[in-house]
Design goal:
Blueprint: E1 4-5, E2 8-9, E3 12-13, H1 15-21, H2 26-33, H3 37-45, H4 52-62, H5 66-69, E4 70-71
Length: 83
Amino acid sequence: MLRMCNNVYMIHNRIAVFRTDLGLSRQELASMAGVNYQTIGFIERGDYSPSLELAFKLAEVFGVDITDVFSDKPFKPLNERNT
């Protein structure tokens, strides 16, 4: 179930984690996804929820499943995932 905060559904993401792991700047990721670099920053901070199409595009750029990047629940730290 999606959680609401200030009447907005909270979508959590790991974009910054995957982006930094790949050594990409916001500008580079934005170019690969076909959006403005500011959009990437807004999504990373949780100020904007991406369209479904953009969410799939970002997951594809990272080479992971969409559920590895986006969730309706806060993510556990990556080092705690399989514990």
